[in-house]
Amino acid sequence: MTTAIRWQQRFQNYQSSLRVLRQACTQTEYSDLERAGLIQLFEVTFELGWKTLKDLLNHGGYDVKSPREVLKQAFADSLVADGEGWILALDGRNKFAHIYNEGIAKAAVAEITGRYLAMLVALETTLAARLRPHA
User: Fold this and answer.
1) What pLDDT digit, counting tens, does each position of 110-126 carry?
2) Where do the domains of the chain lie, and which CATH numbers do they carry?
3) How far apart are the C-alpha atoms of 117 and 42, rounded to whole Å?
4) Alpha-carbon span 17 to 12, nearest angstrom
5) Do residues 57 and 70 make contact, with C-beta atoms less than 8 angstroms apart?
6) In the predicted model, what is the mean pLDDT of residues 123-132?
């Protein structure tokens, strides 16, 4: 599989995950189970996002491997506008994945709905624009 096709296929998965995350973020109140589900969905969407960026950057000739390297290069190439936010989201994703308590979960939902969702949507817009000329 070529790297061009790879990033495009991963992008389709990203869009599907993001669609569900957007829907989940429309609620104003969450049960413990819904909070846990929203956090997990964010983790999956974030993972697909940085891996899509990695595939696109590799296709462009960059040799980036780690999420942090990918996000820094994506910011340098204007693929993401909020570089600091993406790094915070990476750190948050790592924190959310290893610790669960109600306070952290509520803070995570606030971060996801308040900042991270907008970044993920902006990435979708940017990548969709890259895809259009090749369609």
Assistant:
1) 999 999 999 999 999 99
2) 6-131 (1.20.120.330)
3) 8
4) 9
5) yes
6) 93
